[in-house]
Design brief:
Layout lengths: L1 H20 L4 E14 L8 E12 L4 E12 L2 E8 L2 E7 L10 E16 L4 E18 L2 E20 L4 E12 L2 E13 L1
Antiparallel strand pairs: 1-2, 1-10, 2-3, 3-6, 4-5, 6-7, 7-8, 8-9, 9-10
């Protein structure tokens, strides 16, 4: 039993020492994504969203990290553009109703706390997953008239691929899921981060 405990302790120290020697315990990043939202399982044309997610990671060892982040998102409207002349265009916003409601706006924000695990495929390629909780607030409105205003705690999940250069810069592609009670958001995005 003492041998197993000693091996576990040495393994943990080796991971922490490697991170400390490379001075890579910290990572900051930003990710931009777009996707779809559903409210009470309703999904239709016009329910698209755009989102920005900024985060900080503290690397525990070469595999595990803790993450804190903030995201904000809103509806993404389609635009139709027509060419009037060779150099002149007219664009109209397709302001479709959202979620089978008489609404045309959705805004949300999330404060995230999650764990991140990564698996190294090659020297610079990783796949990763994040799982945690988020405190959310969202509003669904028609013009200035709020139809729904909710907050609470929900699930946060992300899975992706990351390419990490030796200079500390990394890029990633990820699928993200945010459960905000009656409002669920699925997005696909790309991001950039820096470790130090």
């Amino acid at each position: 039993m003492k041998t197993l405990s000693l091996i576990s302790l040495l393994t943990a120290l080796a991971f922490n020492t490697q991170a400390a020697q490379n001075d890579e315990q910290h990572r900051v990043g930003i990710q931009v994504s777009g996707g779809g939202a559903s409210y009470k399982s309703s999904s239709q044309d016009g329910d698209g969203v755009g989102q920005v997610y900024a985060y900080y990671n503290y690397q525990l060892d070469s595999t595990w990290a803790l993450e804190a982040g903030i995201s904000t998102g809103s509806e993404a409207d389609d635009w139709t553009c027509k060419e009037l002349t060779n150099s002149k265009f007219v664009c109209d916003r397709n302001d479709e109703l959202l979620f089978d409601l008489n609404a045309n706006k959705v805004d949300y924000s999330n404060f995230v706390a999650a764990g991140k695990g990564q698996y190294q495929l090659t020297e610079n390629n990783y796949i990763y997953g994040k799982l945690g909780a988020q405190f959310y607030n969202y509003e669904i409105a028609r013009g200035n008239n709020k139809l729904v205003d909710e907050d609470g705690v929900g699930l946060f999940a992300e899975a992706g691929w990351q390419y990490d250069w030796d200079n500390g810069v990394a890029v990633n592609v990820a699928w993200q899921y945010i459960d905000m009670g009656d409002l669920d958001v699925n997005t696909l995005g790309a991001g950039i981060s820096y470790r130090f």
